[in-house]
Design goal:
By secondary structure, the protein is of the alpha+beta class. Helix content is 34%, strand content 26%. It has an eight-stranded antiparallel beta sheet with strand order 12-11-10-6-5-16-17-18, covered by helices on one side. Helix 1 runs parallel beside helix 2 and helix 1 packs parallel to helix 8. The protein is globular and about 55 Å long. The N terminus is likely disordered.
Length: 375
């Protein structure tokens, strides 16, 4: 596929000021006098510079933490050079005095972790959990941007066009939260009050799910105080989705995907799941089926239970790896663990399929028509 998108540096020069303004003003509501910490890997240094500059213009106090990718991989690849699984006291101190945190997520060449065969990913995961716990206790308002996860190596891993991917991440992050909020709020209220979902699409989906009063969560790209109670104090950009846990004991019928999805490092470009008596009983996948079967088999019986339903709201997302569930009107059927989202299934496994052109009926009334949300 030929790309006409701008290279990453040109993207930053063209869109950096607008993105910085949107992040600090619309997503995080930064006020004069607040302390703003910006953490960025070297691949996103140009983007971070605009955020630091905009913070000063707003009368805030910026602090920039810089992560060097080359140094990180040199350390990770050398067993003689240690990597820590805990935060330093100076970083803990910075968190205590931070009001707003802007994190350009990295490293960019993350597929190298898979190939290293070391404990580096596990150590990073441990320190990330500590960071999240301390940041939440400190009452931080945060944004995590995915721009830095798109690299040439990552594009090869996902078989994606790098420039198209980068451009889509930028444009998806620039969608004003208010554009997604009105429709999203209406959908969230209806899902909380509803009981029976029916999903149909031209590819053969005919799936019935049930709701049981779980709280729905709207992620529109802006920080809301209520999201903290749901464990969502870090806004992710791009954003735009309404999600709700479903009744884990009920699912009948078939769900067919027409949009790529990327659960658990897999790429699923086509698939059909069949449910009976609340369990996944049959499946076909156009890609990744052997690894999916292996992961599902190892995870235990609860992994085959229905877990989550969501509707995408972002009009700028199309095919960005790991982001297709955000595409406006995209429907997700997820199985496995959902306790993180407020459900009751503690399985460590989860997977999902995405459909883009579905009709969704909620208690006899259309919620989505041919992939268009009806808020």
């Amino acid at each position: 596929m030929r790309s006409t998108a701008l290279p990453a540096s040109s993207l930053a020069r063209k869109w950096g000021p607008a993105l910085a303004s949107s992040v600090l003003r619309e997503s995080l509501h930064v006020q004069p006098g607040e302390n703003v910490t910006v953490e960025a890997w070297s691949s996103c240094a140009e983007w971070a510079r605009y955020v630091v500059s905009q913070a000063r213009r707003l009368g805030a106090h910026p602090l920039w933490l810089y992560e060097d990718e080359q140094e990180f991989w040199e350390t990770a690849a050398d067993p003689a050079r240690s990597t820590t699984d805990s935060l330093g006291r100076h970083e803990v101190g910075a968190l205590r005095h931070t009001d707003v945190y802007v994190f350009f997520y990295g490293p960019s060449e993350w597929p190298r972790e898979i190939r290293l065969g070391t404990d580096t990913p596990a150590r990073r995961a441990t320190s990330n959990l500590e960071w999240l716990a301390r940041a939440e206790r400190a009452g931080i308002r945060g944004v995590r941007l995915w721009l830095g996860r798109a690299s040439r190596l990552a594009a090869e891993f996902w078989n994606a066009d790098l420039r198209v991917w980068q451009n889509e991440l930028v444009q998806g992050s620039l969608v004003p939260p208010r554009e997604m909020r009105r429709t999203g709020r209406s959908l969230a209220r209806r899902l909380e009050r509803g009981h029976r979902l029916t999903i149909r699409n031209p590819d053969g989906s005919q799936l019935e799910l049930r709701l049981k009063g779980y709280r729905s969560l709207l992620l529109d790209g802006a920080y809301h105080a209520g999201d903290v109670r749901a464990g969502a104090f870090m806004v992710t950009l791009p954003s735009g989705v309404v999600e709700v846990c479903v009744d884990e004991s009920y699912a009948e019928g078939t769900f067919v995907c027409d949009t790529p999805s990327h659960p658990n490092q897999l790429t699923i470009r086509g698939g059909r799941w069949t449910f009976h008596r609340g369990r996944l009983v049959d499946f076909t996948l156009d890609s990744g089926i052997d690894e999916f079967r292996r992961q599902l088999g190892r995870a235990g019986r609860d992994a085959a239970r229905p877990a989550l339903f969501s509707i995408g709201l972002n009009p700028r997302i199309r095919l960005a790896p790991q982001m297709t569930y955000l595409k406006r009107g995209a429907i997700v059927c997820q199985i496995g663990g959902n306790r993180y989202f407020g459900g009751s299934n503690a399985s460590p496994f989860s997977s999902w399929l995405v459909a883009s052109h579905a009709d969704v009926d909620l208690d006899g009334h259309l919620l989505v028509r041919r992939g268009v949300p009806l808020g």
